[in-house]
Design brief:
Number of helices of chain A: 33
Largest sheet of chain A: 7 strands, mixed
Largest interface: A-B, 58 and 61 residues
Number of strands of chain B: 1
Radius of gyration of chain A: 30 Å
Strand content of chain B: under 5%
Shape of chain A: globular
Radius of gyration of chain B: 20 Å
Number of strands of chain A: 43
Strand order of the largest sheet of chain A: 7-6-18-17-16-8-9
Distance between the termini of chain B: 38 Å
Structural class of chain A: alpha/beta
Largest sheet of chain B: none
Number of helices of chain B: 10
Oligomer: heterodimer
Shape of chain B: globular
C-alpha cells in the first residue's frame, strides 16, 4: 500500500543546501523513492516463500480445528483459570508490592563510574537511569542503559567450567584451597581498567601475601597514558570552562568519554542549560574536530577537518607550531586550505588561552598525545578553573598485556586469574600470540559473566556476578568515591564477584564465600567495601542513599612533556595513504564496544549512529575511494533477483526495496599486517579518502546457520544474539597498530553479504525537517538574530496559515460550551495537565541512549537481523541521521554536516492516525496524549499509513513470545520456540503492556510514568486535610493540589539523555517549566508544521557557532534538511 | 438464531462470568468476624492500599501477629502454622496460596491508591465485604461498569474519613454538613465532586497503557 502523498512544496531555487540520508537518496534512486512512498516496505507484510505460506495455512487449519473442538465442550473454557495470590511470609523492609523502589548505585566503567538510579520492582532491577545528585552526573549512554539486560541474558554464564566442561564450585574450591596455602605461588591477576578502591586495596594485600604474584590491567580498547603524562595521571576536560575545544580524533561525546560531558552539551545551547537567558552566541562553546571518519563528536563540531588518519599527527604538529609549542621533526602541512584552517584555529585558541581544551583520542598514537599535551601546556589551560584538569589517580604498579604474555612465556607466573571484562584470547594484539602463552600456564582462572573464547581457553571458568548483584565501589572520573550496591542476590548460585574471589585468595583456607555469606555473618564483599569506606554508620547510610560520598576526589597533578616526547613525535611522521596503500582504523564499535556486548540484543539492534548498520560490522569507505577500488557500483546496486530459466521466482521477489532484504554489500578482502580477512563494504560520507574504518568486536563465534558458511567455530563462545554476527578484525591488529595500521591492500571477492541497514527506513518527506542556523552572519540570511527569527519560517512555514487547534483548550472558544446536561463540557480538556516535549537539536548528538532507554522502559522487543532488513524494527524512537552540504562548498565538498534527529510519535493534537482507525483504538486523551489501546487494535495499519512522521510500529510477529533469532521460528506460529519463559522476561516493566502480534504501537510519552506521578500527587489532598485539621469536605481541593510539581516527571528518553536535549513537562506550568521555556524560544519549530497536525513535540533548531575567520565558516550552520 | 446469539453474548459478559465467583480459600478466613465483629480497619491487613496500585494481601507475619496468641489451636489455621510456626510439626515456611477472587485483565492498570485517596470506598467495588463469611465478587468489574462511575462519580464519593467505613450510610451525612438540603450520601457525593475537584477521566490511556 502506498502512503498518502502530501504535496510538499518545492525547494526554492536559491537553496544551496543539499541533504540526504543515504547514497541511494543522493542519487535519487527508484528504490529510495519506494521507501519514501510507503509506510512499510513492500513485502514487509507478506510471506516470503511457498514453504512459509504452507506452514501458516496448515497452522491456521490446525488452530481452527482445535478451537472448534474446544467450543464443542460448551463454555467451560470461558471460566477463567484459578489464580493465586502468594504474599510474602515475612514482609521485607521497603518492598511495597507493585511499587518501584529506587536505589543509588554506580556502573563501574573504564573511564570512571557512571552514577545511576536503579529501578527495582519487588527486588527485580528493570531499568537504570542517571543519578542527578552525583557531582559527576553525566546522563547515561546506550551501553549503560542496555547493561540491565545483560544480567538476565539467556547466554549468561551460570556454571563453573573446567576445561570448558561443566563442573562445580566445590571442585573449584579445592583448587583455591591449594593456592591459598602456597604463598610462593606465581599468580598473575589481570584486572579491568575500571577503578575500584576496594579491589585496589585487596589486590595490594594479595600481592603482599603472594610475594611472587604480579598485577596486570587489560582492556582491549583502553589506553595507557603513563609514558605521556606520568604513571597514574589522567586529564579530564572541564567543559564548563572550555570556550574552545579541539578534538584530535577524540570521540569524547561518543565511545571515547573523558569524563562527564553534560556541561559540554549545555554550552551548545545559546540560552544556557534550562533556557533561562536570552540567546547569546558568546556563551556557547566552539568545537573544532580533526578526524578521519565521522564520529558523534565530529558531527557536533562547528569546524571539522577531514584528514587521513596517518596525517593527524602532522595536523597536530602544525597546530603545536602555530601556538608556539615544540612540534618535533614532523614536516609542516603544505595544503594551503588546511594550513589556513589550522592557522585560524591556533589564533582562536591563543585568544582564549586557558579557557581551551585540546583533547587527543585515547587510542591515538603517543605522538598525537604528546603534541596535544604540548599544545595544552603552551596554552596554559591545565589546572582548576581552566579547560582541562589533571589528576593523579594513584593507580600504579600494574603490568599490561605485553608484560603478561612475556611473563607467561618466561614462566615468571604460572597461574593466571582473569577478572577483566576483556576477552584476551580473542582481542589481544595478534603479534603477542596470547593464546599460546596462556596455554603454558599451569592453572588459569577466568571470572566472567560470559563464556567467551578466554573462558574455554582457561583451565577454570567461574561465572561472575553482574554489577547489579554484587557489593563493590568505584571511583568516578574525578575520583569521587561511589558505591556499587546489589539490587538482588546473584541469579545463579555459582556466581562469584571479583571482590569475593580476591577475598578467597586472602583467606587462609581459600574459601570462596559468595552472596550473603555464612549465616549470621555480614556478607563478605559488603564487609570488605565497608572497611575500605571506613566512615561511621551515618556516613555509610548517606553513601547508600546518595550513591557517593562527599569528598575531594583525586589529587591534582601537573603533567609536563616527558623526555621521550621528541623521539615519539619524530617517529610519527606519516605519509598520505593511496589506493594501493590504504590506512586502516580499528574503530570502537557503538553497539558492542570492544566485543563485550555482542550478546546484548538491544545494543545489537540499535543502528550505528553514523552508518545505521545493525547486527553486524562492515568496512566503511569514502565514496571516492569506493569508486577507485571499483566497489561503489556494486555496493549501490541490489543483488539481482533470483530467476530459474529466466522466470522470476514468485516469492523471492520482494521488490525494489532499497535497503530491504535484497540489500547485500559486496565483500572485499583486506590484507594488512600480513593477515587477510573478508569484510562487507559500506560507503560512508565525510570520511577521509583511502581510509578503511573497521569496527572491532564482531565475529566471535559461528554455527551451521551462518549465511557465508563460515567454519562453525566458537559457536559456544556466544549466545543466540551474538552468533554469526559480523567479522573479526582483531587478528589484523598488532601491538604497534592497535588503532591505526597503514599499507593495507584491498581485493574484490565477488561475494555479497546481507546487511540490515536502517538509514532509508521510515524516510520522511518534508521541507525543513531538521533546521540549522549559524551564530555568524550568512549571506541572504542575516546575522544570528535574524536567522533565529527566520527559524519558524524555514521551509514552507512562512506561507502556511496558523494552525488552529481543534483540540479544546481552556480559554479557547470551544471551552466550556454547555453540553446536553447543561454542564460545561470539559471532557476533552484537562485543566491540570497538558503534556508537551521539546527536543533540542543543538545539543543532540545522535547517540542511541534514548532509543535503548525507551526499549528498556517500554518492553520493546528485538526483532532480529532478518526482520530489521525488512523494515520491521520496533524502536519507538527513530534516530534519523542526515547529511547535508552546500553545493558551492569549495573548502571540502566531501565533508558534509551530520545532522541527527530523533523522531518518535509527535502526539499531534490533530492526529491524522486517529481519524482513520476503524475501531477507535487510537484516540486522544484529556491531557493531550495520542493514546494507543492495544487491546482494541485489530491491526489494519491504517494509522501507520496516515502518519506523516512514520512514527508507528507494527508487531508483524509475536516478537515478545517467539524468539526471532532462531531461523524461521517466527513463521512457525504457535509451534515456534517461545522465549517469554527465559529470564530476560524478568526485566520487563510491569507497568507497560507486553504487546502481542498484530497490534500497532508507538511512543506514549511514557504514560505509565505520567500516570504514576499524577496518582501520587492525588495523595496531596489527604496531606492538606490533615494539615488543616478539618474534616475532608471542609477543605476544598484546588488545581494546585492536584497538579504535579513542575518538571517532576521525566520520560525515559529524557532521563537517559547525556546531552539534556529532551525536555518534557506540563504546558500548564507556563515558563516555570523548562520545556515551555524551550518552546517559547525563537528557534522552536514544529516538524511538518505546514500540514497542520499541531504536534505536541517540537524541535529547537540546531545552532552552529563557527569562527567567521575560518576558511570553511560560510558553509557552516546551514544544514537545514529538505526531503522532497 | 438471534436469541441464541443474544443469550451467548450475555453469557460471555463479565456480569454472567465473574459476579458471584466465590472460590474456597486455603484458610476459611471470615471478613465478617474480623471486620464486623472485631472492627479491624481494612488497612490493618491491606496495608498498602492507599500508597500503591495493588492492594496487598497480608503477608504471613500480619496474620501471625495475632494468631500466635489468639485461636492458635484452631484446625482452620493449619496452613498458617505450616507457613509461620517454626515449632509446628509440618512447618515448611512456604507462603499461603490464596485464591484470587478479583482480577483485572493484564491490559488494565487499575490503581487502588488513586481511588481510596479521593473518596471512593472499598465497598463501591468490592461490595459489603464486612458481611461476607467467604469473599465473593460482588460487582462485574467490566469496562462499562468502570465507566458508569467515571462518568458519575458522585454516586460513590464519600468524605475521606469514611472510605474504610463499610457501614457508611445516610445517617453519617450530617457529621459533614450543616446544609439541611444535603440528606443522603448521594447528595453529599454531589457536593464532594466539586469540593474534591474530582474529574475522572474516560479516555483509553487512563487504564490501558
Amino acid at each position: 500500500m502506498s502512503k498518502r502523498i502530501l504535496q510538499h512544496p518545492a525547494v526554492p531555487t536559491d537553496e544551496k543546501t543539499v541533504s540526504w540520508r543515504s547514497d541511494g537518496q543522493l542519487r535519487d534512486t527508484k528504490e529510495f523513492r519506494t521507501w519514501m512512498d510507503r509506510e512499510f516496505p513492500r513485502g514487509a507484510a507478506e510471506m516470503e516463500n511457498q514453504e512459509e505460506m504452507e506452514t501458516s495455512r496448515r497452522t491456521f487449519l490446525k488452530l481452527m480445528g482445535s478451537s472448534t473442538a474446544l467450543a464443542g465442550f460448551g463454555m467451560v473454557a470461558c471460566r477463567r483459570p484459578e489464580a493465586y495470590i502468594v504474599p510474602y511470609t515475612k514482609a521485607p523492609e521497603w518492598v511495597i508490592p507493585g511499587k518501584a523502589t529506587y536505589y543509588a548505585s554506580n556502573m563501574p566503567r573504564s573511564g570512571g563510574a557512571v552514577p545511576l538510579v536503579v529501578t527495582t520492582f519487588e527486588g527485580r532491577p528493570t531499568k537504570v537511569g542517571p543519578n542527578r545528585l552525583h557531582p559527576e552526573y553525566e546522563g547515561t549512554d546506550a551501553f549503560t542503559q542496555a547493561s540491565v539486560l545483560d544480567m538476565y541474558s539467556t547466554s549468561r554464564s551460570r556454571y563453573v567450567l573446567k576445561g570448558g566442561k561443566k563442573n562445580s564450585l566445590n571442585n573449584f574450591q579445592l583448587v583455591m584451597g591449594a593456592l591459598a596455602q602456597d604463598p610462593a605461588a606465581k599468580i598473575g591477576f589481570v584486572f579491568g581498567t575500571d577503578d575500584s578502591p576496594t579491589r585496589k586495596r585487596l589486590a595490594a594485600e594479595v600481592a603482599a601475601k603472594y610475594s611472587s604474584s604480579k598485577l596486570y590491567q587489560y582492556e582491549a580498547l583502553a589506553s595507557d597514558n603513563a609514558t605521556i603524562l606520568g604513571e597514574g595521571v589522567k586529564l579530564v576536560p572541564n567543559f564548563e570552562n572550555a570556550d574552545r575545544i579541539v578534538s584530535l580524533d577524540c570521540d569524547f561525546a561518543g565511545t571515547d568519554q573523558q569524563g562527564s560531558n553534560t556541561t559540554f552539551f549545555n554550552r551548545r545551547k545559546p540560552e544556557g542549560a534550562g533556557y533561562e537567558t536570552k540567546p547569546d552566541a558568546g556563551s556557547m562553546n566552539r568545537l573544532y574536530s580533526v578526524e578521519s571518519a565521522f564520529t558523534l563528536t565530529g558531527g557536533m563540531a562547528d569546524h571539522r577537518l577531514r584528514v587521513a588518519p596517518s596525517m593527524i599527527a602532522a595536523v597536530a604538529a602544525q597546530l603545536a607550531r602555530e601556538v608556539g609549542a615544540s612540534a618535533g621533526g614532523i614536516s609542516p602541512i603544505t595544503d594551503s586550505k588546511q594550513l589556513a584552517w589550522i592557522k585560524e584555529l591556533a589564533a582562536d585558541l591563543k585568544a582564549s588561552g586557558s579557557r581551551t581544551a585540546v583533547l587527543a583520542g585515547s587510542r591515538q598514537s603517543a605522538a598525537v598525545k604528546h603534541l596535544a599535551l604540548a599544545i595544552n601546556l603552551a596554552l596554559g589551560n591545565i589546572g582548576e578553573g581552566n579547560g582541562i584538569q589533571a589528576y593523579q589517580t594513584g593507580t600504579s604498579g600494574y603490568g599490561d598485556i605485553a608484560q603478561l604474555t612475556a611473563d607467561l612465556n618466561s614462566g615468571a607466573i604460572d597461574t593466571v586469574v582473569f577478572m577483566t571484562p576483556a576477552n584476551p584470547v580473542y582481542d589481544a594484539p595478534s603479534d603477542l600470540k596470547f593464546a599460546d602463552a596462556l596455554a603454558k600456564a599451569k592453572t588459569s582462572v577466568h571470572l566472567s559473566d560470559r563464556t567467551n573464547a578466554t573462558a574455554f581457553a582457561c583451565s577454570w571458568h567461574v561465572p561472575a556476578t553482574h554489577y547489579l548483584e554484587s557489593w563493590s565501589d568505584a571511583n568516578s572520573a574525578r575520583g569521587i568515591y561511589s558505591i556499587v550496591q546489589p539490587m538482588i542476590l546473584p541469579l545463579y548460585a555459582d556466581c562469584v564477584s571479583d571482590i569475593e574471589l580476591l577475598l578467597a585468595f586472602l583467606a587462609d583456607d581459600g574459601k570462596v564465600s559468595t552472596g550473603e555469606g555464612d549465616d549470621g555473618a555480614i556478607a563478605p564483599a559488603l564487609a570488605a567495601v565497608k572497611e575500605t569506606f571506613g566512615g561511621d554508620k551515618s556516613a555509610w547510610k548517606e553513601l547508600l542513599k546518595n550513591g557517593y560520598a562527599e569528598g575531594n576526589g583525586f589529587e591534582a597533578a601537573s603533567p609536563s612533556l616527558s623526555g621521550n616526547a621528541a623521539a615519539d613525535i619524530a617517529s610519527a611522521a606519516g605519509s598520505k595513504p593511496t589506493k594501493d596503500n590504504l590506512d586502516v582504523i580499528f574503530s570502537t564499535d557503538s553497539s558492542v564496544y570492544d566485543g563485550r556486548w555482542i550478546d546484548n540484543g538491544w545494543l545489537q539492534e540499535s543502528p550505528d549512529p553514523v552508518s545505521k548498520l545493525t547486527w553486524d560490522n562492515a568496512v566503511l569507505i569514502a565514496p571516492k575511494t569506493a569508486k577507485e577500488l571499483g566497489v561503489y557500483d556494486i555496493e549501490q546496486t541490489l543483488e539481482p533477483e533470483k530467476t530459474i530459466l529466466g522466470v522470476k521466482q514468485p516469492f523471492t521477489d520482494v521488490g525494489p526495496d532499497g535497503e530491504g532484504e535484497n540489500r547485500k554489500s559486496p565483500m572485499i578482502t583486506i590484507t594488512v599486517n600480513g593477515v587477510s580477512q573478508d569484510f562487507p563494504v559500506l560507503v560512508s560520507f565525510g570520511q577521509a579518502e583511502n581510509t578503511l574504518v573497521i569496527p572491532l568486536g564482531y565475529g566471535q563465534g559461528f554455527d551451521k546457520d551462518d549465511v557465508l558458511g563460515r567454519d562453525p567455530v566458537g559457536g559456544n563462545f556466544v549466545g543466540l544474539v551474538g552468533v554469526n554476527r559480523g567479522f573479526n578484525a582483531y587478528h589484523l591488529r598488532t601491538s604497534e597498530t592497535s588503532y591505526l595500521a597503514t599499507g593495507a591492500k584491498v581485493e574484490l571477492t565477488g561475494k555479497r553479504y546481507p546487511v540490515a541497514l536502517t538509514q532509508e527506513h521510515n524516510a520522511m518527506y518534508g521541507r525543513a525537517l531538521a533546521r540549522e542556523v549559524s551564530t555568524a552572519s550568512v549571506a541572504h540570511k542575516g546575522d544570528f538574530e535574524e536567522q533565529l527569527g527566520m527559524v519558524k519560517k524555514q521551509g514552507n512555514d512562512s506561507h502556511a496559515p496558523t494552525n488552529i487547534s481543534l483540540y479544546k483548550q481552556e480559554g479557547s472558544k470551544n471551552w466550556g460550551q454547555a453540553g446536553k446536561d447543561g454542564e460545561a463540557q470539559s471532557l476533552l480538556s484537562d485543566p491540570l495537565h497538558q503534556w508537551g516535549m521539546a527536543i533540542d537539536l543543538s545539543s543532540c548528538m545522535g547517540c542511541n541512549a534514548c532509543l535503548v532507554a525507551c526499549q528498556s522502559e517500554n518492553n520493546i522487543p528485538i526483532v532480529g537481523k532478518e526482520q530489521v532488513a525488512k523494515g520491521r524494527e520496533m524502536h519507538w524512537i527513530r534516530m534519523d541521521r542526515y547529511f547535508a552540504t552546500q553545493d558551492d562548498n569549495d573548502f571540502d565538498a566531501d565533508s558534509p554536516a551530520l545532522v541527527p534527529q530523533p523522531v518518535a510519535c509527535m502526539q499531534c493534537e490533530a492526529a491524522p492516525c486517529e481519524t482513520v482507525c476503524p475501531v477507535n483504538a487510537t484516540v486522544h486523551t484529556e491531557d493531550g496524549l495520542n493514546a494507543m489501546a492495544y487491546n482494541r487494535c485489530i491491526g489494519t495499519r491504517y494509522c501507520a499509513n496516515n502518519c506523516p512522521y512514520k512514527a508507528r510500529r507494527f508487531n508483524f510477529f509475536d516478537y515478545n513470545k517467539r524468539n526471532p533469532l532462531i531461523k524461521n521460528n517466527l513463521n512457525r506460529g504457535p509451534v515456534g520456540k517461545r522465549h517469554d519463559n527465559e529470564p530476560k522476561s524478568l526485566q520487563k516493566n510491569p507497568n507497560v503492556t507486553v504487546r502481542m502480534r498484530g497490534v500497532m504501537e508507538k511512543c506514549t510519552y511514557c504514560v505509565q510514568r505520567i500516570k504514576d506521578s499524577v496518582i501520587r500527587q492525588k495523595r496531596g489532598q489527604k496531606q492538606e486535610v490533615l494539615a488543616a485539621g478539618k474534616l475532608s469536605p471542609d477543605v476544598s481541593v484546588s488545581d494546585k493540589t492536584l497538579r504535579i510539581p513542575v518538571d517532576s516527571v521525566k520520560t525515559a528518553c529524557q532521563d537517559a539523555c547525556p546531552a539534556e536535549a529532551i525536555t518534557f513537562g506540563n504546558l500548564k506550568d507556563g515558563s516555570a517549566s523548562e520545556m515551555v521555556r524551550g518552546k517559547e524560544l525563537e528557534r522552536n519549530y514544529d516538524l511538518l508544521h505546514y500540514i497542520g497536525t499541531a504536534p505536541r513535540t517540537s524541535y529547537l533548531a540546531r545552532v552552529k557557532n563557527p569562527n567567521p575567520k575560518m576558511p570553511d565558516a560560510k558553509f557552516v550552520g546551514q544544514a537545514t534538511i529538505h526531503m522532497v | 438464531m438471534f436469541g441464541i446469539a443474544l443469550a451467548f453474548a450475555y453469557y460471555a459478559t463479565p456480569k454472567a462470568q465473574v459476579v458471584g465467583y466465590q472460590p474456597t480459600q486455603p484458610i476459611p478466613f471470615s471478613h465478617k468476624i474480623h471486620v464486623d465483629q472485631l472492627g479491624l480497619d481494612c488497612r490493618y491487613c491491606h496495608s498498602f492500599v492507599d500508597v500503591a496500585g495493588h492492594s496487598n494481601v497480608p503477608s504471613g507475619n500480619t496474620c501471625w501477629n495475632c494468631h500466635q496468641h489468639v485461636q492458635k489451636d484452631s484446625p482452620k489455621l493449619e496452613p498458617l502454622h505450616r507457613s509461620m510456626d517454626e515449632s509446628y510439626p509440618g512447618y515448611d515456611g512456604k507462603p499461603i496460596e490464596w485464591v484470587r477472587v478479583h482480577k483485572a485483565p493484564d491490559y488494565v492498570y487499575f490503581n487502588h491508591s488513586a481511588h481510596v485517596n479521593r473518596g471512593i470506598s472499598c465497598q463501591s467495588c468490592h461490595g459489603d465485604v464486612n458481611k461476607m463469611e467467604v469473599v465473593y465478587q460482588a460487582e462485574s468489574h467490566s469496562m462499562g461498569w468502570c465507566l458508569d462511575c467515571h462518568r458519575a462519580p458522585e454516586e460513590h464519593l464519600r468524605p475521606l474519613e469514611e472510605v474504610y467505613n463499610l457501614n457508611y450510610n445516610d445517617d453519617d451525612v450530617k457529621k459533614y454538613t450543616t446544609d439541611s438540603s444535603i440528606k443522603t450520601t448521594k447528595d453529599l457525593g454531589k457536593q464532594l465532586k466539586d469540593t474534591f475537584n474530582v474529574h475522572p477521566k474516560t479516555s483509553c490511556a487512563t487504564c490501558h497503557r
